[in-house]
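Practice record 12: protein with copper (II) ion.
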Amino acid sequence: MLRLLPVLFLAFAACGDDGGDDGSTDGNVLDAPSGNRVTTVTCPASPAATIATNTAGTAYMPNAATISVGQAVRFDLGSTHDVAPADNTQDPGLVVGLGGDACLQFSAAGTYRFKCSPHGFVGTITVQ
Ligand SMILES: [Cu+2]
């Protein structure tokens, strides 16, 4: 099954149409085990939400946001903080490195929970 994934992604990429993924038909491909619904993208001019970390270094700020399918969230993290899947049921694409300033795009509805690896505080993106 794992060996099929690169093929699936290549087939998906070969379809060309990348701007306006509505997540509906592509969901069949992305529903494959480990299929990412969250991908790192170039930040749009106006991300749907921006999540930073507070000055005390104890929380994401804000620690929750609600967006629409296909939108991107900017993560602008303090230097000792990162973003990782909150547990192994979460999308493996929920990743921003330590101190990162990056955007993640969410291609399917759902509740996405992430955490700061070094400190354990958590956040939630609701995609509807
Ligand atoms: Cu942290």
